[in-house]
């Protein structure tokens, strides 16, 4: 087993348990009679993002393993959709809702309705106010990991663009992590930051705009892999593939292929593990049903750097 494979498995098994800035944990779920989780609702932000399709695939496997049904709903990055989906899950009398919230504050009233109906609610990927627990990547560390590598590969100097995303806590924290690292490099200058919609098309658009205003940059950090790969397209369309380096966050299959593509400006990604998030969510919910003590309402899964040097040993999603 390779060093990277061991590291990836290790962080999946030994997640860092802590309290994440910006997450206000709910009171513990009301005591319930011991029973099995048999009906699960999974709510994702945007199924067009490979991260969430991987989450769905792994959730199906985890649900089947315990004999539970799984109903998956795509919010299409719309809070109103998630409100409606939670109300539908209440009517369906699911035991557990696993949610990647579009709006961590705006979804709270719907979560409270679900909890009042006796449903356990666990947030994954990003916090959700009122949820019983949250299982996420350590987003600050992921941003730090990706940008530390980017800045080091730039020789510790140069101008940088940040391809931001929708204003949810996990994305805010990745950008924060990147800026934390930038403070250690006096010759690194962040000269542009624009928000994408977390996808490749908008990543291409905002990067193209920023490159027009800042043609002499030498590094770009994309807060997720789809946006970072959009930035790669913008760099190549501008004829700057040899002058600009790009990193992202996710460890997605598309990022893996890009790392293997000769001549690509894309040089690294800090991993997430969507499968581990949903597996831990289901396991934690069963522990809550069984009345077991929950050590912390927030589980942060460490991120691992994948580059051209170790991509062949990365197990992926």
From TrEMBL:
Keywords, ordered alphabetically: Signal
Subcellular localization(s) per the UniProt record: Cell envelope
Segment forming the signal sequence: 1-29
Source organism, top-level taxon: Bacteria
Domain Periplasmic binding protein: 40-292
GO cellular component: cell envelope
InterPro entries on file: Peripla_BP_I, SBP_2_dom
Molecular-function annotations in GO: carbohydrate binding
Protein name, as recorded: LacI family transcriptional regulator
Species annotation: Providencia rettgeri
């Amino acid at each position: 087993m390779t060093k990277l494979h061991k590291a990836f498995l290790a962080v999946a098994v030994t997640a860092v348990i802590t309290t994440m800035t910006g997450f206000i944990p709910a009171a513990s779920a009301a005591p319930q009679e011991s029973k099995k989780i048999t009906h699960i609702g999974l709510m994702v932000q945007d199924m067009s993002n490979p991260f969430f399709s991987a989450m769905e695939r792994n959730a199906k496997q985890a649900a089947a393993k315990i004999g539970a049904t799984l109903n998956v709903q795509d919010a299409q990055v719309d809070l109103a959709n998630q409100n409606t989906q939670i109300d539908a899950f209440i009517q369906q009398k699911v035991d557990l809702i696993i949610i990647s919230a579009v709006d961590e504050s705006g979804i709270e009233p719907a979560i409270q309705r679900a909890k009042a109906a006796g449903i356990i609610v666990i947030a994954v990927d990003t916090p959700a106010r009122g949820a019983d627990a949250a299982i996420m990547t350590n987003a600050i560390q992921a941003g730090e990991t990706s940008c530390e590598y980017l800045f080091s590969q730039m020789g510790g100097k140069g101008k940088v663009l940040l391809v931001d995303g929708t204003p949810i806590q996990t994305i805010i924290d990745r950008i924060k992590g990147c800026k934390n690292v930038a403070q250690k490099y006096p010759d690194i200058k962040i000269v542009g930051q624009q928000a994408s919609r977390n996808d490749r098309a908008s990543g291409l658009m905002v990067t193209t705009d920023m490159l027009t205003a800042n043609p002499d940059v030498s590094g770009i950090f994309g807060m997720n892999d789809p946006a970072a790969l959009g930035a790669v397209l913008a760099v190549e369309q501008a004829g700057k593939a040899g002058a600009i380096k790009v990193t992202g966050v996710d460890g997605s299959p598309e990022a893996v292929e890009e790392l293997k593509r000769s001549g690509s400006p894309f040089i690294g990604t800090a991993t997430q593990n969507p499968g581990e998030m949903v597996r831990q969510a289901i396991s934690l919910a069963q522990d809550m049903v069984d009345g077991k003590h929950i050590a912390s309402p927030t589980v942060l899964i460490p991120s691992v750097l994948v580059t051209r040097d170790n991509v062949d040993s990365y197990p992926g999603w």
